[in-house]
Amino acid sequence: MIADAAIKRLIQQALKEDIGPKDITSNAVMHRAKKGKFVMLTKQECVVCGLSIAEVVFETVDSTIHFKPLVNDGTKAVKGKALAYIDGGCQSVLAAERTALNFISWLSGISTLTNKFVEAVKGTRAKVLDTRKTIPTLRRLQKYAVRIGGGTNHRMGLYDQVLIKDNHLEALMAEPTIVKDTRSAIENALKSAKMNAGRGKKIEIEVTSLDMLKAALKHNPDIIMLDNMSVGKIGEAVRIRDAHRIRVGDVGFKVLLEVSGNVTLENVKEIADCGVDRISIGSLTHSAPSVDISLEAR
Predict the structure, then answer these.
(1) 246 pLDDT exceeds 90?
(2) What pLDDT band is residue 250 in, cutting at 50, 70 and 90?
């Protein structure tokens, strides 16, 4: 990942948070001229992500530090694998150590978890997607880690894709003179989205029942999200979508089905086997455990 100006500002803020005025421990116990050699190691199997970010952390603290990556982002590393060599002034390296490790451990955790889901659905048509359940201001990094793990990014924000959710429909139904029920809310929302969203913007709608699915299919959105449905209902939803496709003909009908809600490593393969196109998983970014990565003198 290229560390542009926004990422560099983020790194500077992280370093300021950790170092403050100075690293009083390193400054107190070793001479400024002391040089050292260090190795970054993973203590567990993982999909590596964030080496370029870690490199910028060290270089921001001290431009004379030499950071030599030994693998690339996306590498599946075994326990004990050396990821990078770092040479430079000990005070500087140790001042940057925790911030660099925090970034790479966290991002590698996201990539590693994502890859487990991707491997679980291998052989099916389903793509593994992330969501907007990210840490504020850190979304770009988290979504980058999802891609490195083999996943696919959902919309980046509210600006690049329409996603009509339950609250949109409920808000529409608060005006009963205009929208009388859920079916008419779906029709109204999809028609309005197609007229007003802008050229090239994909349109997705969330449904929680098979009746809502049938109503949405009539208006040919790009994607229909099946929210918190059982595996049995997901399978029936696929059959309904496929039967509708046959009735209207393949030309011009490309409605994708996406599953969201309560997806785990234990059930994701069963969900994918139903024939859905996409599975979006919030835990990729909000619950991925960090990978244990350390920096050791060599």
Answers:
(1) no
(2) low
Q: Which domain holds residue 54?
A: 5-114+288-297
**Over residues 1-29, mean pLDDT:** 94
Q: Which two tokens stand for residue 58?
A: 């060290």
Q: Which long-range contacts (CB under 8 A, 24 or more apart) does 257-260 make?
A: 257/223, 257/224, 257/226, 258/129, 258/204, 258/223, 258/224, 258/225, 258/226, 259/225, 259/226, 259/229, 259/234, 260/131, 260/206, 260/225, 260/226, 260/227, 260/228
Domain count, the chain: 2
Q: Which residues are catalytic?
A: 98, 133, 165, 206, 227
pLDDT score recorded for residue 245: 84
As a whole number, mean pLDDT of residues 60-72 equals 98
- Say if residue 104 is in the same domain as residue 125: no
- Clarify whether residues 171 and 281 are in a common domain: yes
Segment 16-43 mean pLDDT:
96
Same domain, residue pair 142 and 273: yes
